[in-house]
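Quick start: what a row looks like.
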Amino acid sequence: MTITRLASIVMLMLAAAASPRGGQAERSCSKETICVETTQNGGTVTFSVENAKAFDTTVTFETEVENMTSSQPLRYTMLAPGGKTVPAFTLKQADKSLAWRYQYRFHWTIGSAEAVHDDSVVYAMPYSSGEAFTVIQGFNGTFSHIGEQAYSIDWNMPEGTEIHAARGGVVVDVKDDENRGGETPEYKDYANYIRVRHDDGTIGEYVHLQQGGARVKVGQHVNTGDLLGLSGNTGFSNRPHLHFWVYKAFDGYTRQSLPIVFKAREGSGLTLEQGQTYTAE
């Protein structure tokens, strides 16, 4: 199982109608990834979102207001593209003779809710040609493939096995600095992984990699079959294996895994099944 990076920040702002402020900005940042900036000019407050990472994120705002109107719904989900700052929404004082108030929080998660998976894609086995590995947990596996992880695949494989791109794209995140792993959920944040953004906006994630095992860098373009790294046993893991899933964001709280099909020497358009062994072409 892989980590889910979610974050929330709560801000409370109060203002009296008789004491307007001009051009005052506030920034709230989460995990060195997402920063929300609010700029107040009199009774108007504008929100923008900065994404410091290469991967797309989806941000959900929940806002409460008194004597203010909003340019967007008070529960508002938006895309924050990797490496960009984008406008979010604006609050305006409704009755200029009365005090106004707003309170907001935001949650973010990795991926784009706007992504639409290309269902014509057939994924390659994420290991070297001619090698064969057994699926130890497939879609809707009862050990850990539930909820947002439902459409995930685990292959049993020795540590140090070469992992190859199941689909081409751009590397948007790499973590390979951990050596900790264990059979209980408290180890989930210690998983090493590589994330590849596909051209339809979805993300393919390769998890439980070996410490120091990454063979690619953020920003690197990879083709199907290119070497990504080495398998391991880090994070929430009860044995050495590779966990792979493709997902998009659902909103700022959760991600949505996507059912995909594979090609192997055993056939093409395959939905992989637990207990079956598949040989890479």
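That is the whole record. The chain has no helices and 26 strands. The first strand starts at residue 7 and ends at 15.
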